[in-house]
Specification:
The chain is an alpha/beta fold. The chain has two domains: about 170 residues, Rossmann fold (3-Layer(aba) Sandwich), CATH 3.40.50; about 170 residues, Dehydroquinate synthase-like, alpha domain (Up-down Bundle), CATH 1.20.1090.10. Helix content is about 45%, strand content about 15%. It has 15 helices and eleven strands. The strands form three sheets. Strands 1, 2, 3, 4, 5, 6 and 9 form a seven-stranded parallel sheet that branches.
Length: about 400
C-alpha cells in the first residue's frame, strides 16, 4: 500500500490595477477612460455600461454623453447596447434577483473574459455589479467608476464584491480585483449632502489608526468639509484612497483570511446599526457613530484620552454627522442593547474569535478580543458627552 502523500501548492499571483483621478471623464477631449479600456487584440473590445439610477437622476444627460463618447471611439470600443440603469443603494444588494439579472445581461451580449463591464455607481452598486461580474466566466474585467465620496475613497477602490443576504451585511461575495478604477470628481457634484459627507467618516477611520498627520489635517478641514468645500473633499479622497490601497497591498492579508479586519475600526456597530434601521441609516453615517463609540471605549482603556474622543465627535458633528439615532437605544427582552448583537455577528464572521482594532494612540492601532458590555452599554446610555447638541 502506498504511503499517503501531500503536495503543498504555493501560488504567487501578481495583482495590479490603476486608480486614476480625473474630472468630466466623458468630455470629448478626456482620454483617461480610453487609456484604461483600450485592448491589444486589434478588435473592438466589447463594453457593457451599468449606471446607478441615482446618477442618472442627478445627471440626466449622462447616458447620452456616454453613448456619444463611445461612438467617437467605435473603431476600438464596442458599446454593446445603451447604458443600463440599475437600482442604487442597498436595494440592489438586498435582492439576489437583481444580481442574477446582471449575470443574464452579461451572458446575453456574449461578453468574454476580455470584455469590459463599466460600472458607474455608489458602493452598493459597485459591490453587487462586481459580484455578478466575478461570476460570469469566473470573472470578466470590471472597471469601476465610483460616484460617491464613500466609494471613491474606500468601497470602490479595493478588492471586495458582494451582497446582503439573510438580513446580514455582505453575507455572500467574492474577493476579486478590478481591472481599473476611475474616480471622476465631477460625479460628486450631484450628491445630496448626506451622500456627499458619507466618505468623510471612512477618512477619519483610516487616519485614526494609520496616519496621525492626516487625522489632524481632517480636524482642521472639518469646517470646510461641512460647507461642501470641493478642494478639501478631493484632498481627503486622494489621501484616504492612498492609505486604503497601501493597506491592501502591504497589510499582509488582502483577502482577509486571518482573524482580524484591521480597517474595520468602528464597523461592528455600524453594520448592525444599518441593519437595525433597515438601511435608513447610511453606511457613512453609521460609521461616524461607530467611530465615536469605539473611541470612547479606547479612552476607557487608556489608549487615547477622553478629550481626544470628544474632539473626534465634535469634528464629525462639524462635518455634518448626527451622532444619535433611535436604534442606539433599542433593547432586547433581557435588557441587553440590541446594538451589542453586532459583536456576536462580528465574532461569527471572524471565525469565532472577536478581534477589533482601536486607536492606540492616534495614528496607530492595537487589537482587543473582548468588549466589556457593561462599559459599552454605559457609553450608549450616557451619550451627552459625545453628542453635541445643535
Amino acid at each position: 500500500m502506498k504511503m499517503p502523500k501531500t503536495i503543498h501548492q504555493t501560488l504567487t499571483v501578481p495583482l495590479s490595477y490603476p486608480v486614476t483621478f480625473t474630472r468630466r471623464a466623458f468630455a470629448p477631449e478626456n482620454e483617461s477612460l480610453a487609456e484604461i479600456l483600450k485592448g491589444d487584440s486589434g478588435q473592438p473590445r466589447k463594453v457593457l455600461v451599468l449606471i446607478d439610477q441615482g446618477i442618472a437622476d442627478a445627471f440626466g444627460e449622462l447616458p447620452g454623453q456616454i453613448q456619444a463618447w463611445f461612438h467617437a471611439r467605435r473603431q476600438c470600443l464596442n458599446l454593446v447596447r445603451e447604458p443600463v440603469l440599475v437600482p442604487g443603494g442597498e436595494a440592489i444588494k438586498n435582492d439576489y434577483r437583481q444580481v442574477m439579472t446582471l449575470v443574464d445581461l452579461m451572458l446575453e451580449y456574449h461578453l468574454c473574459r476580455h470584455s469590459i463591464v463599466l460600472v458607474l455607481g455608489g458602493g452598493a452598486v459597485l459591490d453587487a455589479a462586481g459580484f455578478a461580474t466575478a461570476l460570469v466566466h469566473r470573472g470578466l474585467r470590471l472597471v469601476r467608476m465610483p460616484s460617491t465620496t464613500l466609494a471613491q475613497n474606500d468601497a470602490g477602490i479595493g478588492v471586495k464584491n458582494g451582497m446582503n443576504l439573510h438580513g446580514g451585511k455582505n453575507t455572500i461575495g467574492v474577493f476579486a480585483a478590478p481591472y481599473a478604477v476611475l474616480n471622476d470628481f465631477a460625479l460628486l457634484e450631484g450628491l445630496k449632502d448626506t451622500e456627499w459627507r458619507a466618505g468623510i467618516s471612512e477618512a477619519f477611520k483610516v487616519a485614526m489608526i494609520k496616519d496621525a498627520g492626516f487625522y489632524h489635517e481632517l480636524l482642521e478641514m472639518a469646517p470646510a468639509l461641512g460647507r461642501r468645500n470641493r478642494e478639501a473633499m478631493e484632498l481627503l479622497i486622494v489621501r484616504c484612497a492612498e492609505l486604503h490601497l497601501d493597506h491592501i497591498a502591504n497589510g499582509g492579508d488582502p483577502f482577509e483570511l486571518g482573524s482580524a479586519r484591521p480597517l474595520d475600526f468602528g464597523h461592528w456597530s455600524a453594520h448592525k446599526l444599518e441593519a437595525l434601521s433597515n438601511y435608513r441609516i447610511g453606511h457613512g453615517q453609521a460609521v461616524a457613530i461607530g467611530l465615536v463609540l469605539d473611541s470612547y471605549y479606547a479612552a476607557h482603556l487608556g489608549w487615547i484620552s477622553h478629550q481626544e474622543a470628544f474632539t473626534l465627535a465634535d469634528a464629525l458633528h462639524t462635518c455634518g454627522f448626527e451622532l444619535d439615532a433611535p436604534e442606539l437605544h433599542l433593547t432586547l427582552g433581557d435588557g441587553r442593547p440590541a446594538l451589542l448583537q453586532g459583536l456576536d455577528e462580528f465574532r461569527e464572521h471572524l471565525g469565532g474569535i472577536l478581534t477589533l482594532s482601536l486607536p492606540c494612540p492616534i495614528g496607530q492601532k492595537a487589537e482587543i478580543h473582548e468588549v466589556d458590555e457593561a462599559i459599552m452599554t454605559r457609553i450608549l446610555d450616557d451619550h451627552a458627552p459625545w453628542v453635541r447638541q445643535t
